[in-house]
Amino acid sequence: MMRQAEITRKTAETAISVKIDLDGTGRYDNNTGVGFFDHMLDQLSRHSLIDLEVQAEGDLHIDDHHTVEDVGIALGKALSEAVGDKRGIVRYGSCLLPMDDTLVRAALDLSGRPHLVWKVDFTASQIGSFDTELVREFFTALAMNGGITLHVEKLDGINSHHIAEAAFKAVARALRDALESDPRKADAVPSTKGTLSE
Questions:
Q1: Which residues contact 170 (CB under 8 A, 6 or more apart)?
Q2: Which tens digits make up the pLDDT trace of 108-146?
Q3: What is the distance between the alpha carbons of residues 65 and 68, in angstroms, rounded to a whole number?
């Protein structure tokens, strides 16, 4: 079974195209017009081993908000489509990720029930020209549209670049674990309900 998806999303504010392969090797080609965000998407791909292509054109003359949020929406929808009925996956994943001064914990459940618990504060309002509050906006959109219960918590950290990057890497590693095939239950949906679509 090919766990791949392609999503296009066009509004008056953005035009987004996302392609993913959940069984990839972490190859990426991300071009959103927002340099720091591209760097974070590259990390998400590399550390989850999800092949990821994102092409985005947004109203960057206003700010980065619509582009970042809409990429999160499209990526969440692509992830949900690619994983299908979730038969045979581990379902849960977590990671405690250190990066220099920073320590971030991420835990997630591909439950089909979207929820975000976000306990990450930044010491700066911007990383270069990128608004740090957009990190939360991205993960909110990803969780809500991907049907993911997602908890992200900063346990330590001073440098805002490290904090953001550790969050993306921790979620990536948790996704990698959750999407893996469970060799003991490769033919079953990991739920006593028999479904993870609702």
A1: 95, 96, 97, 104, 105, 106, 152
A2: 999 999 999 999 999 999 999 999 999 999 999 999 999
A3: 5
Whole-model pTM: value is: 0.93
Do the beta carbons of residue 31 and residue 55 sit within 8 Å? yes
With a CB cutoff of 8 Å and minimum separation 6, the contacts of 69 are 134, 137, 138, 140, 141
Distance, in Å, from the CA atom of 27 to the CA atom of 50, rounded to the nearest integer, reads: 7
Burial label for 183, CB within 10 Å (0-12, 13-18, 19+), is exposed
Distances (CA, A) of 150 to 5, 65, 153: 21, 21, 10
Q: Strand 4-10 vs strand 14-21: parallel, antiparallel, or unpaired? A: antiparallel
Look at residue 182 in the predicted model and tell me its pLDDT.
Answer: 78
Spell out the residues 6+ positions from residue 132 whose beta carbon is closer than 8 angstroms to its own: 122, 124, 125, 126, 160, 163, 164
Cross-sheet strand order for the sheet of 51-58: 4-10, 14-21, 51-58, 28-31
Distance, CA of 53 to CA of 99 (rounded, Å):
25
Cα–Cα distance, 171 to 117 (Å, whole number): 13
Coil, strand or helix at 151: strand
